[in-house]
Amino acid sequence: MRAPAPDDAPRRLEPWSLDQGADRVRALFSESFEGEPEASVSAPGRLTVVGDHTDYSGGLTLATVTPHRTFVAARRRDDQAIRVVAAHGDQIEGPGPRWEGALGSLEPGYDGWPSRVAGVLWALAERGYPIGGMDIAIDSCLPLGTGLGSSVALSAAVGRAADGVWGLALDTESGAVELAEACWEAENTYVGFPCGRLDQHTVLRCEEGEAALLDFSETPPHITHYPLYFHEYGLSLLLIDTGPRRDGWRDAYARRSRAAVRAADVLGLPSLRELKRDEALARVAALEDNATRIRARHIVSESMRVQATVAELSGLGPAHDRFTEIGALMLASHQSLSADYRVSTPVLDLAVDSAFAAGALGARMAGAGFGGCVVALVRTNAIAQIADQVDAVLVSQGYPQPTFLEV
Ligand code: GLA
C-alpha cells in the first residue's frame, strides 16, 4: 500500500513493522475465514546490490533483503481445499482478491498471483511433504512487480506458512535451502518462468542488515554472509521505484537466458562460469556474433564486479575510498546491464543518472530490469535532497512520479 503523498512531495513507502504486518494479515484472515489463523509468517523482498543476470550462468551475486515484506496467515483444513484471499489481488495479474483450488488437483500453468501460492504447495507435495488443505490470507507492503522479488516473497511466505501449520521442520538452515529449491521448482515448473535461483535463496536465506554473496556455480548456491554496515557509516540504500516492468518482460528474460547458454556452447563450456578468470574477457571478446558477445561480456564482467564489491566491503582501506569504489562498481554494473545486456529502460537510465548527479555515490537498476527499481548508495542525510531531485527530473521528463524506499 503506497503512503499518500502530501501535494507533490516525493512519495516515500515505509515498511510495516513485523507486528503491524502480522496484525493486518490476521485481521484479513479472520474477516475472510472466521476464527483465528494457526500461523502468521512473512518473507522479505530481494534487493541486488551488484550482480544481476548472473545466476542462471553459474555466476556471483551480492544481494540483501528489504524491510518491506509479504505477510501470510494460515490455518490447516481437514480436506484438500486451498482457499486464498490476497489484499492486493485486484491490483495484480490474476482472478482478483480470492482464489480457491484443491491440493490433489493442482495443474502446472500460469494464472497470475495464485500460481505463486499453488506452485509452492504443489512443489512441497511433490517433494513428499505431508501437507493438506489450507485457508490462507496474504497482505504485503512490498511493491509488487517492480523488480524486488515480490513473486518469490509470496511463494516463500506461503511455504513458511505451510511449514508453520504442518510442522515440516523447514525453519532450519538446511530447511531454508530446501524451501528455496521448492520455490524455484514452483517458479520454473509450475509457473513456467525460467528464472535462476537468486530470488529464492536470498529471500529465504539472507537476513536484514546482511549482504549475501551467492555463488551459483554450485546447486543449491553456496552463500556467504557479510554484515551490510552502510548505516554505521551514515550511508543507506535508496530504492527508486519507477513503476511496473513492461509487458512481455518474461519473454525478453527467457531470450537472455538462452543467449547465455548459446555463448557457453560456442565456447565449448558447460556454463560461462567455467571461463578461467584471467582469460575470460579475452575469450568473450573473440566471440563472432555481436549479440552473443555483448551478453556474455556482461555476465562475465558482472561476476567480477561482485568479487570487487565484496573485496571493498570486507577490505581494510579508508572507508570513504571503499564506499566510493562500491558506488563506481554499481555504476559500471548499470552501464553493462544497459549497454551490453540491454535490460534497462530510458526511465531506469534517467533515474540512475539523476541520482548520481544529485550526489549518490553510485546507482544501478536492480533485478531483472525492463522497468522497476533503481538502487542508489547515498549518504543518509542527503536522502531527502536526492529524492527531491530525482523526483523532479523524472516528472519534468514526463515519467510517472517514482516512489522511494529506504533499506
Ligand atoms: C529475476 C530472476 C532472477 C535473476 C534476476 C536478475 O529476478 O527471477 O533469477 O535472474 O531476475 O538478476
Please give a structural write-up.
With 407 residues, this protein is an alpha+beta fold. It folds into two domains: 11-52 and 65-227, Ribosomal Protein S5, domain 2 (2-Layer Sandwich), CATH 3.30.230; 231-406, 2-Layer Sandwich (Alpha-Beta Plaits), CATH 3.30.70. It contains eleven helices and twelve strands. The strands form two sheets. Strands 2, 3, 4, 5, 6, 7 and 8 form a seven-stranded mixed beta sheet that branches. Helix 6 (249-266) packs across helix 8 and helix 10 (346-357) crosses helix 11. The longest helix is centred in the C-terminal third of the chain and has 24 residues, at 290-313. The radius of gyration is 21 Å and the shape is globular. The model is unreliable at 1-5 (pLDDT under 50). The structure holds alpha-D-galactopyranose. Alpha-D-galactopyranose is lined by residues 48, 52-53, 55-56, 149, 195-196, 198-199, 367-368.
